[in-house]
Design goal:
CATH topology of the largest domain: OB fold (Dihydrolipoamide Acetyltransferase, E2P)
CATH class of the largest domain: Mainly Beta
Structural class: alpha+beta
Order of helices and strands: HEEEHEEH
Strand content: 15-25%
Helix content: 40-55%
Radius of gyration: 30 Å
Shape: elongated
Number of domains: 2
Strand order of the largest sheet: 3-2-1-4-5
Number of strands: 5
Length: 211
């Protein structure tokens, strides 16, 4: 039972951690090298990694998607999709896909004369599943050595930690006030039943001895 509980807790932590890692904003310092628009056939369960069709797209099976290609200071490639989130999930309320596409085109630079930007995004890149992180904002920076502090993610994580602490404290108080006294009453009642049983057995034994 102990191992089953450990496995369940581990799976819950991985599930919640994966959800937060996918949803919370992340920041990449990159150099934009190209933008393009490509027809994507989206179907099956991997469609959860793309925006729903009611966010300004035609159909969920096939639609044109804008992409932003970039390179990190270490030379690693990054590809981002550029889709509105609208009123859907995650709640970024992004409606400026066209503006962001224009900003990305304006920030294109070469290796000889690089212009570095911070791309704020959420989501994962998977070559196997053909999924891409969704770019949310582009901001110029002085250079690749700039440190970006993820204040939004930090604030959200601290808030969630406080909520979890409050919930844990409320459950602990509920247990102390409601469950523990009930358990004690049950144990006392069980002890009383055992005592009566023992007394009855002793009386029966005494009756047989007198016989």
């Amino acid at each position: 039972m102990r191992y089953v509980k450990l496995v369940l807790v581990t799976l819950l932590i991985l599930l919640v951690g994966g959800f937060l890692h996918y949803t919370l904003p992340q920041h990449d310092i990159v150099r934009i090298v190209n933008t393009y628009e490509e027809r994507q056939d989206i179907s099956g369960w991997t469609s959860i990694f793309w925006q729903a069709p009611d966010n300004g797209t035609a159909t969920i099976q096939s639609r044109d998607v804008q992409f932003i290609q970039a390179v990190t200071p270490e030379g690693r490639t990054r590809v981002y999709r550029n889709e509105d989130t609208g009123w859907g999930w995650p709640p970024y309320f992004k409606f400026d896909t066209a503006n962001l596409y224009t900003e990305a085109n304006d920030a294109i630079s070469t290796k000889a004369n690089p212009e570095w930007v911070v791309i704020t995004h959420y989501g994962w890149r998977s070559e196997i599943l053909s999924t891409f992180p969704n770019a949310m904002a582009i901001k110029p920076v002085a250079g690749p050595e700039v440190t970006v502090v993820p204040w939004v993610s930090a604030i959200i994580l601290v808030f969630l930690a406080i909520v979890l602490l409050l919930v844990w404290r409320m459950l602990a108080q509920f247990r102390e006030r409601a469950i523990d006294p009930l358990v004690e009453d049950v144990e006392e009642a069980w002890d009383a039943v055992d005592e009566k049983k023992d007394n009855a057995v002793e009386r029966i034994k005494g009756w047989f001895r007198r016989k």
